[in-house]
Amino acid sequence: MTAPIARRPADPLVAWSGFPWLTVPVASTVVGFAILFAVPLATLIRDWWQLPEASHGLLTGPLAIIIAVRVGRTKHSRSAVALGIAILAVAVALRYVAGLAAEPFTMRASMLLALAALVVFHGGLRQLGHWWLPAALLVLSIPLPTILQTTLALPLQLEASQLGATLLQWRDVPVQLSGNVIHLPGRSLFVTEACSGLRSLSALLTLGVLIGGLWLRSPVVRVILVMAAIPLAMLLNGVRVFLTGFLIYYVDPALGEGFVHVTEGWVLFAAAFLMLGAAAALLRLAERHWPARGVPA
Fold first, then answer.
1. pLDDT of 2 above 60
2. What is the DSSP string of 230-276?
3. DSSP annotation of 73
């Protein structure tokens, strides 16, 4: 007969009964993170829900978590405790300073930096690089500071106005361009900040990163796809200004606003998305004929 093997008592620092993944250090980390970053996370989700220029975060935020879980942990990951603690200390200090200044962008950036610190602490820099796609999606889901949005919106407004006016002149519509105001006979078309194309640019850049990360292998080719989203967004907005002016002049001035104007924007964005997908398909085909070294997504 053999003597029964004595069971070792469960170590509360290793696992809690029924939940082998739930340990005291993990639970403490989750609670501490929730307390420290509850305000930035709550305001971020609010902005995703309320602000049109940030609404893509409702998709990219959860999608980043799903991709990270699906990709999993790389076999080359090695814990980097000292580096993780150092990055976490910087993130906590940044959170404190941003809280004093009540600056939402910096508070949210500190939250992402703290997440990166935890990844480095448990899996090292290789694990952080392995999760580059969900990390990029989380960064792109953070709305830009208001002052930066205003700075970027003005040149985009002027570019869209110039392109729209050029297309209208090509269609024999008499126009006079004054900054971001297009003067039509008996009516003026004002390209506002909301119509600058910054929203479509943010969304197309995010889609470019997502499509490139899932479909393409080479980092260089992925960058090409993302860069292609910039002129595509500018073209999209210029065409939208042109269509608005065209409908106002030839059909009915009421078509320049309301349901038709909003629907026009959605249709053009869908067309831009298809064009971006077509560009990704061509780049993927090019990768097969001219193999490029890259990191698999």
1. no
2. HHHHHHHHHHHHHHHHHHHHHT-GGGGSTHHHHHHHHHHHHHHHHHH
3. -
From CA 237, how far away is CA 226, in angstroms rounded? 17
Give 190-199 pLDDT, tens digit per residue. 776 666 667 7
Q: What is the pTM of this model?
A: 0.78
Q: What is the pLDDT of residues 67-109, one digit of tens each?
A: 998 988 888 888 888 999 999 999 999 999 888 877 889 999 9
Its domain, for residue 185, covers 146-289
Helix axes 198-215, 146-170, angle to 10 degrees: 100
If asked whether residues 132 and 205 sit together in one domain, one would say no
Q: Which of 92, 122, 140 is the last residue of a domain?
A: 140
CA distance 176 to 58: 40
Q: Say yes or no: 131 and 240 in one domain.
A: no
Tell whether 161 and 126 lie within a shared domain. no
Is position 16 within any domain? no
Which two tokens mark 254?
Answer: 């009421």
User: What's 195's DSSP letter?
Assistant: G
Give percent above pLDDT 70 in the chain.
83
Q: What share of the chain is helix, strand, coil (3-state, %, to 5)?
A: 70, 5, 25
Is 18 among the domain residues?
no
278 and 151 in a common domain: yes
Structure tokens at 232: 């595509």
